[in-house]
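#random but structural
TW: two for the price of one
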Amino acid sequence: MYPEPLSDIIDLFEHLPEQERRENLIVMADNAAKQEPKEGAHYDLEDVRKDEECTDTVGIYLRVEEGDRAYFAVTLGPLVQTLTKAMTSILCRGLNGSTLQQVLDIPADFVPRIVGADLVRLRSQTVYYVLGRMKGAAKAYMTRRALAAED
């Protein structure tokens, strides 16, 4: 149901006591900068904007390789919250290499298993924001490609 790398992350987090879960989320947030686009890399879709649901600008960069494999990079403005940063790291690690269709089909029900029910209640918009943006990028890419094929 989930790509294997994401499934491994879910398994790790859901078995942690609450304090360790939060500590690991902070570690993941600290690594969010590693998910930024690489200098000179080509991306098939770039979506950089600030939405109401987020405290700062977020950029989603999508590169599609053979076999419709999706690879994401993300930029985050300085005001983006810690939990959004953590989810960025988790999703890039967990979804990179998945097919576009797998990205679109992934249910969001795994999020509470990673961040915990309490944080989901407190930060419901935040925890789902990056996943929604990644799915939107995958869908936009597939739509653009289909329209180009019709021409």
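TW: number two ↓
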Amino acid sequence: MKPLPLPVRLAAGLAVTAVEQARKLPQQLAGLPVTVVSEALQLSMRVQQRVTELAIKGDDALAGLRPTEDEPEWATFDEDEEQPSDGPAPRAEDPWEAEERALAAEPPSALPEYDELTLPQLRAKLRTLSADDLRQLLDHERSHANRPEFTGMLARRLANLDTPVSPDTQ
């Protein structure tokens, strides 16, 4: 059997392909909106990336033409806020000076481990200390770390010891 001429074979192949594609068309149509939306989003993101790249290049080019502000006018810092005019503004303590004082300090003799104690540990030992011991610890705390929680607790305990107990309240 003699093969059919090439144009006939091509036409038959083209017809079969058209039928196959026509059968796939309903499935492709169902996915078409998703494909179109996906490609549109990709294009949109590429455009946004390109715009951002151009803006960055423009910023770099213009940065040399105008001086940058050391401190933007919209930025505010705690130091910039005006202090109340009641009196002189309190001077902030230099942390290096505080550390040097703490290192050079002798531990209080009433409680040599005082500087290492936590607030709960100190609270547990307060009842065993005399008024003189408490004064020594309070002076030590005020001249060194000056932690409000510690000074407050020591001062309250000292005030309780200094207050005479009346026979009615016993």
